[in-house]
């Protein structure tokens, strides 16, 4: 990780988390529900999605406070998806980021409802961003709904479950990841462009960057499942291979997956060349994603 | 049911259901996910919530097509909440409206995801109502998020689960229902007022009407669980008493619950007197809710 990225994260992480937690703490809701929502929000994670919203705003020298709100919305969506994914009827995971999963602590019913509430809240907080023009709020809500719903993340999750029972080919596997993890990452980057009134060309270039970063992110995830330890990952390593899951290394060998990762990294950087601004932070971010070890 | 209500329903029900189904059919998502979403949307139900959106628009002689879209959004939220409520970890219901519940047909994982996707889609379709000004769309999204999330329906569901382990008192029981079922009914009515540019006074009166109708609706639900047959209800009757659930009849006796129902019906009608328009349709609706037998 470069010093600039380290500094960028150190500067913004506390503000991201502060915004995220306050947006839940201030709602009037049963205490055990708020506790369950906050438990998973506070369970850590790299906050890559909110950091991307901020990094894109940074590119346009856009310092507006609402970038943190949009970042909180996308982190809520990400967190709800993890809570539901971990349920016994889905991935049946007991541990996440080194801690017991939500349903282990709060029970399945409350975990399901905490996920539902985070999903719903993310749209509410976007709707309430008073300093953002209504048409921009509507655009962000529309993009988030597409990215996180049946046409994006949830659809990808369905395809992923489907892929557990048979070996997917490479286009099918890409399709899963473009939806399951890519769509939300794309929203993180595109929302920064919307908030910053980026031109159509700039936005298209950033969306292409997002596309390749999303795939690179997932390939690195698959690689880490093989090469990293459970301790480094905060979850059980080697689970993909045991469960016969369709992964990039399974389809392409570990070496082939690493090569694919480099290709997407390269295309992501290339897309940034079309933005006539100082894109060095986003380039360093791409490198951080590709070379992360957890 | 009066002839006018019958006619109003006969006129609008096909359009409501057509809008509801097309909004799902047109999305690009895995077929099994769309099937699961459509299965529960098509499982029937009285469509009371969309009918309320339309009845309020009718009051203002507002014929805009988007009332059906808002109605579809609220019916999606209602349907997702039923899918999740029926899950084994929640109410564990095998039958709903005389048909096997979603998870019985599609499995728990897909049922959870279909619910998630409907929740998310409802916000997307509100955001995409091109003929409604952005500021109105934002207002509707904000209201729906509050009504359906931790501060409304989901919060009420948490309180309801809590109430299964102990006897609630009357204010606690009211609080459950104001959130669990009342908030969404209120949204149905308030959204019609927003779409129709109602004055503040009109809107406040309609919200008060909604408050009492919501409680009346729930009390009648509790009463029907005792006096109606399973066949009439399309679900297991007498379940509340068997599960020792906190209900109005359990707290107030059956007679006391019927009296409470009449009180709320009366207050609902009274609130409508403050709207200087022909509120007869909404009055007849209140009567229909209170005297329905399923």
From TrEMBL, chains A, B:
Cross-referenced InterPro entries: Isoprenoid_synthase_dom_sf (IPR008949), Polyprenyl_synt (IPR000092), Polyprenyl_synt_CS (IPR033749), Prenyl_diphosphate_synthase (IPR053378)
Pfam families: polyprenyl_synt (PF00348)
Catalytic activity: isopentenyl diphosphate + (2E)-geranyl diphosphate = (2E,6E)-farnesyl diphosphate + diphosphate
Domain of life according to the entry: Bacteria
Molecular function terms, GO-annotated: (2E,6E)-farnesyl diphosphate synthase activity; metal ion binding
Annotated EC: 2.5.1.10
Cofactor: Mg(2+)
Keywords from the named record: Isoprene biosynthesis, Magnesium, Metal-binding, Transferase
EC category name: transferase
One GO CC term on file: cytoplasm
The protein, known as: Farnesyl diphosphate synthase
Protein family according to the UniProt entry: Belongs to the FPP/GGPP synthase family.
Record Gene3D superfamilies: Farnesyl Diphosphate Synthase
Coiled-coil residue windows: none
GO BP term (any one): terpenoid biosynthetic process
Species this protein is from: Lysinibacillus halotolerans
